[in-house]
Model the fold of this input.
Amino acid sequence: MRRPGLCFGAGVVACIAVIAAAAPLVAPRDPYASGIDMLVPSSALHLLGTDDLGRDVLSRVIYGARASLAIGFGAALAAMVIGVPIGLVAGALRGRVDTVLAALIDLFIALPGLVLALIITVMVGANLRNLVLVLGFVMWPPIARLVRGQAMALREMLFVEAARATGGTPLWIIRRHIWPGVLPIVAAQFATSVAFAIFTSASLSFLGLGIPPPTPDWGGMVRAGYDYLAINPWMSLAPGAAVSLTVMGFYVMGRSFR
Amino acid sequence: MTMLRIGRRQTLAGLAGGMLVSRAGLAQTPILGGTLTVGLSNEAKTYDPIFSVQFTERYVLYLAFDTLVKYGPDFSIKPELAESWDTSADGKRIVFTLRQGVQFQDGTPFDAAAVKWNIDQRLDPKVNSPQRQVLAPIVASVDVIDPQHVAFNLVAPSPALFSLLGERVGFMVSPTAWQQRGDAFGSQPIGTGAFVLKEWTRGSRVVLERNPHYWQAGLPYLDRIVVQDLAGSVIGVQRLLTGEIDYVDQLTPADVLPIEKRAGIVLKPITVGRWYFLQWHVNKAPFDNPKLRQAFAHAIDRNRLNEITMRGQGTISDSPTPKGLWWYDPDLKSYPHDPALAKTLLAEAGFTNGFEYTLSTPQVTVFQQVNQLLQEQLGAIGIKLQLQPVAASEWYARVVSGTTNLTPTRWTQRADPDGLLYILFHSRGFANTMKYRNEKVDALLDQARTVYDVPTRKKLYAAAQQQIVDDLPMVPLIFGAEYAALRAPIQGFEWIPDEIPRFRDLWKSA
Amino acid sequence: MAELAKPSAGSAGGTAGRGWFRLMLGLIVRRVLLMLATAIAISALLFFAVTQLLGSPAAMMLGQDASPQAIAALNLKYGFDRPAIVQYLHWLTGALTGDLGRSYTTQQSVAAAIATRIPVTLELSLWSIALAVIAAVVSNTIPTGRRVLQPVVTAANLIGITVPNFMLGVSLIFILSVKLDLLPSTGWVPWSDGVGAHLEHMIMPVLTLSAYYFGAFSIVYRAEYQNVLRRPFVRVAQAKGLGEWRVAFRHAAPNAILPVITFVGISMGQLAGGAVVTETIFSMPGTGRLFVASIESRDFPVMLAIGMLIVVGVVIMNLLADIAYAVVNPQIRHDL
Done:
């Protein structure tokens, strides 16, 4: 089952990355240019029709990949930066440090992620930087738990015992012996995290807490198009499909690494 | 109201609607009975007129209560609970002759004492009604002459009083019930209106039933009115099509596209549109610079705004007043769309390297669309605007507190020119969030609000509006286009220019 | 995941009687204390963050007719001008004695506002979880038609997990409501309007919300089911000549279902978020939508009350799931 998954996932991800990078070349029109022919369903000039301001939906969907990938990668990275060290320290060092950190992780894991992200974003305002930080903050606990588990398992292994016997400091042990064992797991988890980040940020955008207009943003586009489903359904369905496909690609890729 | 859950429901509705349309040519006499279901994004907090602030509350207030005077479809003042009135020679005392035999829904009589009590409550600082700030500068006191005659003693002659008595200030509340029910009055209101509020399930619906003792013989025709909560106008359109509701409004021209030609649905465009404008603080940098403001004014293409956000069905606004109201000035000089001139003015203002600012964007579709277009048009002359989204419920609070400087906004018209122009543009106007202060305008507005003679007032308001437009405390944009959509059996509906639907006189044909 | 040890088989870690009971009690007490601490900590955090960042709701409550005097009067009435800590303690003491205050926007009692909306959210959630569990278990247990069914189920799982539920919801509305006119596009009519109508309105919201969990539960269940299939007692049943379906559903499935149950508990937190989005798409008068509205309108009492409710609810569900798991699985008790 590994091969097909990896091919599909990596293929989708690569396509989307290329489209996002080459957006000005790929998109047929300027995604910001309004026009008088509003809410036109699919036509020769506009393959996916126009939105309520007369802008080309296809071009906006293409440009929307940029925001999604930026948030996805940014948030996954932020979550790793927070979660991995915490997990490492908790798993590698037993005792009180671990108990405290483990309790902390358990506490945060139980919290409803989207709800928390909602509250914080409403308060600090929605822009690229804030969204990355908020999502990273919401996503770190599962990563920390995963890393902690792996670190704990490695710790029990004989070679670590040996290292400790020969007088290695905890930090050195972590860096030299535990980290290399944890790294593959982290790498595999990264793709899944990106998927989750894009998924959650799109939901936030749908609720009105995404990147401010007029920047094309998939979740926000679905929200705006919802009112006009009967007139030009592509306005909602196209960005929605884009989100789904992107999340699917990253997720499948992440799963196939396991 | 049963929902037609049979497969081809649209065809059936189409057939039924077709038959009705063909009979519409015959004059129909009102039929007694039936339930009207209104769909509304109801933000009502209270149905106590003394404390009412929200726009949608008045949808129900005009059913449960009557006002002293009412508005005609051209904003003219007509008798309602007050049959006639006499103005003294100096204009400072108006004696109203009240209709006889009117009862509140709790059986207590409506008389001059009740009127006096109502006005006194609104003027009483301890009660703290939000209407006090508009009423206190106008009414000094109220006297009871006899049960049928009540006199208003005014601070100065005030033609604007009549406009106020046709809306929130004029809703007559039962003093007995108000004193008895206290805080609960807002959920169990008692007025003289044609319908009694029977049930209010917040977030769900309001149910009103016919008042059998209503003073107007023969009215109301309907047995029952249900105001059903809706999440938005689009849901409303869908529910209208399935027959779950009979009426929905606040529809934009884009919203009505799917139902424009549907049989069985009637569209009623509003007669006078909401006024949209872009406002800023003129008392401090950067918008205290007149050339910067003029650059904005010339850079904005209002025609295009109208084309795109209103599908061309709105009108361009050069001043606060739309055509159709008597204080409209057709000769007012305004700011034509001229990007080249705008660029020059921007440079003259000192912003040779362009200008950047944040534009507050309430999360309401029309504002979002307008702002994106403004951003585009101003961007073309070197003004970079960053759109800052704000939750709709939070947005105006920020404007009032002064945290927000640059924002679009919109207002509905009032029956008297003093209504909107004073509160927005007089230096003491409570809604003057632009911090605008021009003594000449103040003097003109102060004078115009104490004169009853219409031609004189017209001249004064024309001068005031021209000055306001010259000063640019705001850039007028457009008057919006909006629709109500009704199912064909509903008869008798007519818009009043304040955009609040009056359901009292409606009836349902078979 | 540890295997389900049958009570009749003498299990290694099984401590019966009082010792076990004391252990469970200890667990419950610890968790409840943790829950209270979390609830208070989060409420304080929310309260201070909101008041510091968003300020007083007075002007917003008054709308376009707000004047400085009216705002000042409202500030006085609700105590918005008092220091944040005073306001917070005032709220906390009220909340602990059961008085959750009045909504700033509707003047209605917060407890009443939430009480009318909870049934909606609960009903939506219960239907969705039930559907997800049943669909996941059944579709992954059916012994026949592997070659055709399996890829379909796998694809459905994938779609459920990766397609955001707002996209699912909007697509369903588009196909079933706008184009085919089969179902209404709103998610709620009261039971009093008719059982049929009520259920009809619920179909799409339930499908939307359950999709993700169908996918997630399937993955968990399938893994465990494969394990169970390899166990001796299953082979015994097969050798006895029992039909495929009987073996699958009456013998294997009940043993494989345990991890799903635990997973249901863990998913509660995410479910709260999913319900918010689903209620928004389908305009349902539930606590999720009220929560979003209360955040935007800075309706502190409502926001704090629902926030607490969500946290408490999630912790309780986690606790119940842990207890359920421990009750039937003696081997892990000593890890608690």
